[in-house]
Amino acid sequence: MRYMLTIIGEEGGMEDATPEDMQAVMAAWEEYTEALKDAGAFVAGEGLQPSATATTVRGYEGDERPVTDGPFAESKEQVGGFYLIEAGDLDEALEWAKKIPARGGGVEVRPVLDYDAFAAGSASAAEASN
Amino acid sequence: MQYVLAIIGPEGDWQDVSPEEMKASMDAWSAFEQELADAGALVAGEGLQESATGRTVHFAEGGDTTVTDGPFAETKEQLGGFYLLECADIDAAVEWARKVPVVAASAIEVRPVMDYTQFGFERPKRTAEVSS
User: Quick check: helix, strand or coil at residue A113?
Assistant: First the structure.
């Protein structure tokens, strides 16, 4: 089963970091990513540029789709990156999430959709696909 | 350059949706993903189960973690899925975002992935495989 680990927290904080600090932070993330890969758990993952670089496309208003600068919500905490991982169950995914070298904020862990069950709309389909 | 399209919106009540409407929706998403794949733009992408199925690990200063049920923030709109796309620039990424077949109340946040070279680092080798 695949799980999405969404990394959420306050932005910034690295402006005054020394090159050595940056190196240590990068090394911690690389070590974590390598551990995921070694375990065969890594599917995808990226850090994101700050939310100020975002562009948001809204749903249709008539035939129009309004486009605005900035993130969907101007909240203090923003998504800073994600991992998509393969894990046996939610508890295993949580163990991976706890090891993320975040320095505050949180990591939201969510299972991906089971499309077979979704399309069939029945519990039996969910069981058959597991 | 890679861009994340984060799909955000109210969580739907699919119990009231007819099988025909469900199929039409699934077909629209499949057609969109096929277009992405044909253009060589699709790196990864998943829909997520609703936020109530999730848990959140909170990080305190000093490294302690606590786990709570549900999403990070109990807001009306929640992350419903994402695409990771390879695009020439953000305009191209926004053009793809305009084609995402979401319902009216939803939105797509487009964000470039981190440019590690600005910190003097090479870009880490990240994505291992293309999503099925």
Answer: coil
